[in-house]
Automatic annotation (TrEMBL), chain A:
Alphabetical UniProt keywords: ATP-binding, Nucleotide-binding
Species of the source: Nitrobacter winogradskyi
Keyword ATP-binding listed: yes
Protein name: Iron complex transport system ATP-binding protein
Taxonomic superkingdom: Bacteria
Automatic annotation (TrEMBL), chain B:
Protein name: Iron ABC transporter permease
Keywords: Cell membrane, Membrane, Transmembrane, Transmembrane helix, Transport
Membrane topology value: Multi-pass membrane protein
Transmembrane stretches, start-end: 63-81, 93-112, 118-138, 145-166, 197-216, 236-265, 277-295, 307-325
Organism annotation: Nitrobacter winogradskyi (Nitrobacter agilis)
Alphabetical list of Pfam families matching this protein: FecCD (PF01032)
Family stated for the protein in its record: Belongs to the binding-protein-dependent transport system permease family. FecCD subfamily.
UniProt key word Ribonucleoprotein: no
GO terms assigned for molecular function: transmembrane transporter activity
Domain of life, per lineage: Bacteria
BP GO annotations: siderophore-iron import into cell
Compartment(s): Cell membrane
Length: 276, 333
């Protein structure tokens, strides 16, 4: 099993401010990801989720505020040192060249080997291990361009695991996947957190957030609207404020929260929000 | 490693074979015994040694080595540009190096008429055109992929129109034909001094590009992903663009415009070996060298007078590309 090689570190953004032109994208955001946590980031399109991710990953520099990893400023880490600590899983995409799944995952080892050293037998073994862990060993020799969206998403997660990083940041990992893959992916996230990874993922589906997250952060218009345990955060009024639909929340027999949309009032509330 | 050894042997074989092609007929055996005599391992009559020295070393070897260098440079830089631009249809001219070099060569023919200065002018203008393209792309902040492509297009268009001006003002009896002939591409003007000058930077550039192979794999996934994988995206991109530009500008200044090699050869190699750049780049270099040596043999032997090699690579490249398209189109839906 690939377990994180480096000590568990906390990733935090402190009073981060980011503008694009005159438009404020993020306004004094403070957010943290501690070890073993699964944090779900909710927010409508354009709320600033992707920008926040890009800042946490060090792709963008905040105008004000700071990102810290294990207490150290993110800017003090080299790209490679960061890649050994934080892995990024983009939305499943189509690559321009038909790399084999094994080779895509092998790219995760670049953080370990550096760009000029050829991968060794140990690197190939590490790839085999993560493929097995995600139960996609059968895809190893298939071209990445020819597998399904769900399989591509798992391949990208495998690549992130091959990096050996402790922190995983996933950008809408469930988007575009069929129901089966969505549920399997959620299960993988829980398992990964159980083996010592810290996970931050964005989603458009509050049900997914409620199901696996230990904490939910809600982003709206570049500010944090709520941050706390799922059962406290997810309320009918929050869902209505975020998405403009009416829901009720129930607790099922296993004590889990269930979100039930109300079809009758769904259109009414949308009208209300557009009027407002 | 074994693949590279195999390719080296193949390349040597191609060079030996091509030494036998030409107006003065030679057998492989003649070439072999000449080289043995040259190394002092086998005696040879001085008259026939002198004759063979003249044919092999002075006439044929420079252009064959030129073909090998130019073919390797074009194929390898083409493969590198394809990875940088995440597009298998990109050719080495994407950033304007060919347009700039053509203008430079034409200007050199007009102003100096001296062959070495023509080559220098082509090389320098090739680099200038790419710099102009990069500057245009970065005019409004950090350049995205599409801005780089557009910057290259604008720069190429600029230098192509400048080329037209030079052609228009050129003397139609002497200079204009020289310009047109240069634009068709030819290895006929290559001599040993130029080979010595161009060999080290070209081979050095090819080795450097090959070393960037794994980083290019990551970069072809997108900038953010490359960064997340620990690859500094911008330095790698500009390093590779710079090296590939240098190498292709050198090749153009040696032999003029030789099209399709940089597009077709990497494509064929990718179909055979897969897209991994650490293998693709060196193998493309060898295959490009062998391809251009072969094309040069044809250009010297099918007709009594030499056919400009640029025309031949186009004629050979187009059917090859159609065959490749047939196999590759499944990935482009």
């Amino acid at each position: 099993m690939m377990t994180p090689a480096l000590p568990v570190e906390c990733l935090e953004a402190l009073a981060v401010h980011f503008r694009r032109g005159a438009r404020v994208i993020l306004d004094d955001i403070t957010i943290s990801l501690k070890s073993g946590e699964i944090v779900a980031l909710l927010g409508a399109n354009g709320a600033g989720k992707s920008t926040l991710f890009r800042i946490l990953l060090g792709f963008l520099k905040p105008e004000r505020g700071e990102v810290r990893l294990g207490g150290e400023p993110l800017a003090d880490f080299s790209r490679r040192a960061l890649a050994q600590r934080i892995a990024y899983v983009p939305q499943a995409h189509v690559a321009p060249f038909p790399y084999k799944v094994h080779d895509v995952v092998l790219l995760g080892r670049l953080a370990e080997t550096g760009i000029f050293r050829a991968p060794q037998a140990a690197d190939h073994r590490a790839v085999d291990e993560v493929l097995e862990r995600l139960a996609i060993t059968h895809l190893a020799t298939r071209p990445y361009t020819e597998i399904s969206g769900g399989e591509r998403q798992l391949t990208l997660i495998a690549r992130a695991l091959a990096q050996g990083a402790n922190i995983l940041i996933l950008d809408e990992p469930m988007t575009g996947l069929d129901y089966g893959y969505q549920i399997r992916l959620l299960k993988h996230l829980v398992d990964l957190a159980g083996s010592g990874h810290s996970i931050l993922f964005s989603t458009h589906n509050p049900e997914h957030a409620v199901r696996v997250a230990t904490r939910i952060v809600v982003l709206r218009d570049g500010t944090i609207m709520a941050d706390g345990p799922p059962t406290q955060i997810i309320t009918p009024s929050l869902i209505r404020a975020l998405y403009g639909v009416a829901v009720s929340t129930l607790t099922n027999v296993e004590g889990q929260m269930v979100i039930v949309p109300s079809m009758e009032r769904a259109l009414d509330t949308r009208l209300e929000t557009t009027r407002a | 490693m074994t693949r590279l050894m195999f390719m080296s042997v193949l390349l040597l074989g191609a060079i030996l074979f091509s030494l036998t092609i030409g107006r003065y007929p030679l057998q492989i055996g003649d070439v072999a015994s000449f080289f043995l005599a040259m190394a002092g391992l086998k005696p040879m009559a001085p008259e026939s040694y002198q004759l063979l020295y003249n044919v092999i070393v002075e006439i044929r070897l420079p252009r064959i080595l030129g073909a090998a260098l130019v073919g390797a440079a074009l194929a390898s830089s083409g493969a590198a540009f394809q990875a940088v631009f995440r597009n298998p249809l990109v050719s080495p001219g994407i950033l304007g190096v060919l347009g700039g070099a053509s203008f430079g060569a034409a200007l050199g023919i007009l102003l100096f008429g001296n062959w070495a200065l023509v080559q220098l002018s082509a090389f320098v203008m090739g680099l200038v055109a790419v710099s102009v393209g990069l500057m245009i792309a970065n005019m409004f902040g950090k350049a995205s992929m599409i801005l780089l492509v557009l910057g290259g297009m604008i720069s190429a268009a600029l230098f192509t129109s400048a080329l037209s001006i030079v052609k228009y003002t050129a003397d139609p009896y002497e200079e204009l034909p020289a310009i047109v002939y240069w634009l068709m591409g030819s290895l006929g003007g290559v001599d040993m001094t130029q080979i010595r000058w161009a060999m080290i930077p070209i081979i050095g550039g090819l080795v450097a590009l090959s070393l960037f192979g794994r980083a290019l794999d990551a970069l072809s996934m997108g900038d953010d992903e490359a960064r997340a994988l620990g690859v500094p995206a911008q330095p790698v991109r500009y390093g590779v663009i710079g090296t590939a530009t240098l190498v292709s500008a050198l090749s153009v200044s040696l032999a003029g415009m030789i099209g399709w090699v940089g597009l077709v050869v990497p494509h064929v190699v990718r179909l055979a070996l897969g897209p991994g750049n650490a293998r693709l780049l060196p193998t493309s270099a060898f295959c490009g060298a062998i391809f251009l040596i072969g094309a040069d043999c044809l250009s010297r032997s099918i007709m009594r007078s030499e056919i400009p090699i640029g025309i031949l690579t186009e004629l050979l490249g187009i059917p090859a590309f159609i065959i490749v398209l047939r196999r590759a189109r499944s990935g482009w839906t």
